[in-house]
Amino acid sequence: MPDAVVLARLQFAMTIMFHYIFPPLTIGLSLLMVVMEGLYLRTGDKTYESLTRFWTRIFAATFVMGAATGVVMEFQFGTNWAGYSRFVGDVFGPALAAEGILAFFLESCFLGILVFGWDRVPPRVHFLAAVMVALGSTLSAFLITTANSWQQTPAGHVLVGTGPLMKAQMADFWAMVFNPSALPRFFHVLFGSYVQGAFVVMGVSAWYILRGRHLDFAKKGFKLAFGLGLAASLSLLFTGHKQAVIMALHQPAKCAALEALYTGADHAALPLFGFPDDESRTLRFSVEIPGLLSWLVHGPKGGRVAGLDEFPVEDWPPVFLSFQFYHAMIGLGMAFIGWLLLNAFLLRRDRLFHHKLLLKGHVAACILPFLANQFGWGAAELGRQPWVVYGVLRTQDAVSTVVPAGHILASIAMFGLLYAALFAAWLFVLGTKIQHGPEDAQGGGGKPPLPAL
Amino acid sequence: MDLQTFWFCCLGFLLAGYAVQDGYDLGAGMLHPLAKDDAERRVIYNAIGPFWDGNEVWLVAFGASLFAAFPDAYAAVFSGFYIPFMLLLLSLILRAVSIEFRGKLPSELWRRFWDRVFFGASLGASVLFGVAAGNLIAGVPVDSERIIAAGLSDLLSPFPLLMGLVTAALFAMHGACFLCVKTEGHLQARIHLWRKRILLAFLVLYLVALVSIMARNGSAAEHLRDRPFVGLFAAAGLMLAAGAFREAHLGRGLRALGASSLIVLMSVAVFCGCLYPDLVPSSLDPAWSLDVWNAASSSKTLRIMAAVALIGLPLAVAYSVFMHLAFRGKVRIENTSY
Q1: Residue A442 — very low, low, confident or very high, per pLDDT cuts 50/70/90?
Q2: Cβ atoms of A429 and B101 closer than 8 Å
Q3: Closest Cα partner for A136 from A168, A98, A167, A171?
C-alpha cells in the first residue's frame, strides 16, 4: 500500500480539485447577477429580471456543492494534516476563521434572501442581497487565497520552538495577510472566476440562440457575460505576469520548475511548450522565445533567472507535471483572449448571433475555463512541493501521524464514489434547469416547462 | 477573564448557535418520515429551506475558530477521530445535496431516494455529534505527544453512544417544536403527537445521561458535581423540558419552540461547563490533557481573532435573526420553493 503521505496528498488533491469546480462559477455568476438585477431595477426591463431569476437558480445549485465540498477541506486540515495544523495554526488559522466568521455568514444569509426572498422582501432589499452575496464570496476568495499565498510566500511570522515542537507564530498580522504574493494571486483567482462565470453564461445563451429559444433573454445575457469575460481575461495577463515575477523572486525553485529551466541563465528563454526530462535535465521538443523569461522577470535590461541546478534535487517540485499544467493554463488564457477578440468584431450589430459555428464554439468553450482554473491551481500547488509552507515546512512532515494509510484509502474510496455521484447529479440538475429555461420565457420553441418544483 | 477563556466562551457560543439552529433542521430531517405524501414532505423541506445552509455556517465557523484559537486541540481531535469525522462529513454532504436535489425532478423514485438519504444523514449526523461530545466528556487517550491513538471501538463505547442517543432525541424534540410552528393541518397534528412522545423520551434519556456522567470518574463528573452553575444549567434543562411539554400540550407553538431552544442552549452550557478548562481531557494522565492554556495560539493571535469575533459574531446573530424574521410564519409553497 502507498504510504500515508502519498495517500493524504492524493485525497487532498482529489477533494480540492472537485471543490474548485464550483466556487469560481459561483463567484463569476454572483457578479453577473448583481449587474443583471441592477439593470432590471434601473430599466424595469423584464428580461433582466428573468436573467437574474434564472441564473440565481443555477447559482444556488452550484453554491450548495461548493459549500458542502468546502466543509471537507476545512475538516481535512485537522484529520489528515494534523502536523500542518499544529505548525501553522497560529498564523494560518486566523485567515480561515475570519473567512468563516466574516464571509460565510454574510454569504449564506443573503443567499437565502436571494433564492427564496423574491416575494418576501422589496426589490431593493433583494438587490442588496445580491450585492452582499457577491461581496461575501469575494471576501471569502480573498481570505482563502491569502491563506494559501502565505504557504507560498510566508511572511509576518516567526518560528518558535525546536525539533518536532517547532511552530510558526504570528508576528505581524497585516504582513501575513498581505504577504508578497497575496494580492496578485487573489486578483488572478478572482478574474479566473469571472472568466469561468462569463463563459458558462455565454455558452448557455449560445445554446438557446442556436435552438431559437428565449432569444431576447439569451442575447442580453450573452452580451453582459461577453463584456465581463473579455475584461477579465485581459486583466489576467497583468495579474499573471505580476504573480510570475513575485514567484521568480520568492520561490525561485518553483519558477524554475514551472518553466523547466534546468540551468540558470542570464538570458533565460521562455518556453511555449515542450517535454521536460529530469534524467537528461533538458526540455525536449520545445519552442522557446529567446531571452523572454529574463525580460519578463527583470524588465528590458534582463537579468539572471535561477535554474533547477541551483537547488538540491530533493527540493525540486515535480517538474514535468507542474510545467505542463502551468503552460496549459497560459495557453488556455491566451486562447480565451484571442477567441473573445475575434468574437468582439462579430458582436457588433449582432452578426455573431447568426453564426452557427461560432455559437457552437461558445457552447463547447464553457468547459475550458474550468480546465484553466484547475491547471493553474495544479501548477501553483505542485510547484510549491516538496514544501507545504515554502522553505519552512515539508509536506512529508505535515501529515497526521496517527491516521493509518488504510483509513485514508477508505476515505478516498468514500469520497471518490460520493463525488462521482454528486457530480453526475449536479450536471443532471443543471441540465434540467437549462433545458427548462427561464420561468417567464417569451421565446417559444422549447419544451413545455416542467411543473414548478 | 483571560483571552484563552474568552475564546473558550466564543467557541461555546458558536457551538450553541450551531446546535440551537442546525439542531432543529437536523430534527426536521429525523421527523421527515412523519410526512405522508409528497405535498407534506415538501412542506418539511421548505420549513428549513431558507435556513439550513446559514445554520451550517455556524459549524464551519466553529471548526475554523477552533483551528485558529486552539490548533493543538483541533489537530488532535480531528486526526484522532478520523473515521467518525469522515462519517460526519459524509452525512453533512448527503444532507445538503438531498435537500437541494430532491425537488429538481418530479420522479417518485428520485424523490423517495433523496428522502431516505435526508432522514439517514440527519440521524447519522446528530448521533455523531453526540458521540463526539460523549467522548470528550469521558476523556480520550491523549498521550504525552498530544496524539490521540484510539480505535473505533474505543470511540464507540456505551457512554458516547448514549450521548449520541440523547443528542438525537434532543434535536428531534427541537425539530418537532420547530415544525409545529411552521406546519398546519394533519401534518402538524401528527408532529404534535410525536413531539410529546419524543419529549418524554428525551426527558428520560437526559436524566440517564446526567446520572451516568455523575457516576463516572474524571474531571467532567467532578465539574458537574462541584460547580453549582453547571448543576443549575442541568436543572434548568430539566425544568425547561417540562415547560416545553406543558406549552406543547396547550398548543402554544412559539413558546414551546422557545423552551426547546433554551434546552439545547442549556445542554451546550452543561457540556462546556463540564469540560472547562479542558478542551480534550486525557484519559491516560490528566497532566496530558489539552486545556485552554496549553493548546492555545499565541496571545497576539487570540487578540486579533477576538477583534474578528467581536465584529463578526454580532453580525452573524443579526443575520440569523433577520433571516428567521423574514421567513417567519407557516410554510408557503412558492415557485422558488424546494
Answers
A1: very low
A2: yes
A3: A98
What's the pLDDT band for A158 if we cut at 50, 70, 90? very high
Write the CA distances from B293 to A322, B15, B69, B78, B298, integer angstroms: 42, 20, 10, 19, 10
Three-state DSSP at B213 gives: helix
Find the radius of gyration of the CA atoms of chain B. 20
User: What ipTM was assigned to the predicted interfaces of this complex?
Assistant: 0.87
Task: State whether B105 and A69 contact (CB < 8 Å).
Answer: no
- A213, A217, A212: which is closest to A449 by C-alpha? A213
CB of B79 within 8 Å of any CB in chain A? yes
Q: Quickly list H helices, chain B.
A: 3-31, 38-48, 52-69, 71-80, 82-102, 108-138, 152-155, 158-182, 185-214, 219-226, 228-249, 253-275, 299-326
- Contact, A168 vs A159, CB < 8 A? yes
- Residues A138 and A167: beta-carbon distance below 8 Å: no
Which one-letter amino acid corresponds to residue B298? S
Radius of gyration of chain A (CA): 23
Give the residue from chain B lying closest to A70, CA to CA.
B60
Identify which of B64, B93, B327 has the shortest CB distance to residue A97. Answer: B64
Binary contact (B105, A453; C-beta < 8 A): yes
pLDDT for A255-307, tens place per residue? 999 999 998 888 888 898 899 988 888 888 888 888 888 888 888 888 889 89
pTM of the model: 0.91
Nearest Cα residue to A260 out of A238, A237, A286, A240: A286
- What is the grid cell recorded at B153? 471501538
The residue of chain A nearest to residue B76, with distances taken between CA atoms, is A82
**Residue B286: Cβ within 10 Å count:** 14
Minimal-distance CA residue of chain B relative to A402: B149
User: Is A402 within 8 Å of B85 when comparing Cβ atoms?
Assistant: no
Give the span between the Cα atoms of A271 and A288, in whole angstroms: 4
Share of residues in chain A with pLDDT > 70 (%): 97
In a mutational test of the A interface, the residue from B88, B98, B100, B146 whose CB has the highest number of chain A CBs within 10 Å is: B100
Rounded Cα–Cα distance for residues A86 and A202 (Å): 45
- DSSP H/E element including A340: helix A319-347
- Which of B49, B148, B335 minimises the CB distance to A402? B148
Q: What average pLDDT does the segment B36-51 reach?
A: 89
Q: Is A96 within 8 Å of A71 (Cβ atoms)?
A: no
For chain A, positions 54-93, list CB contacts with chain B under 8 A: 60-61, 64-65, 67-72, 74-75, 77-80, 82-83, 85-86, 88-91, 93
Give the nearest partner residue to A94 out of B89, B103, B301, using CB atoms.
B301
For residue B287, what is the DSSP state?
A: G
* Residues in A touching B94 (Cβ below 8 Å): 418
Q: Tell me the pLDDT tens digit for each residue of B178-204.
A: 999 999 889 999 999 999 999 999 999
Chain B interface includes A128 (CB < 8 A): no
pLDDT score, position A1: 63
pLDDT on residue A112? 86
CA A177 to chain centre: 19
pLDDT for residue B20: 95
pLDDT above 90: residue A109? no
Q: H-helix or E-strand containing A271?
A: strand A270-277
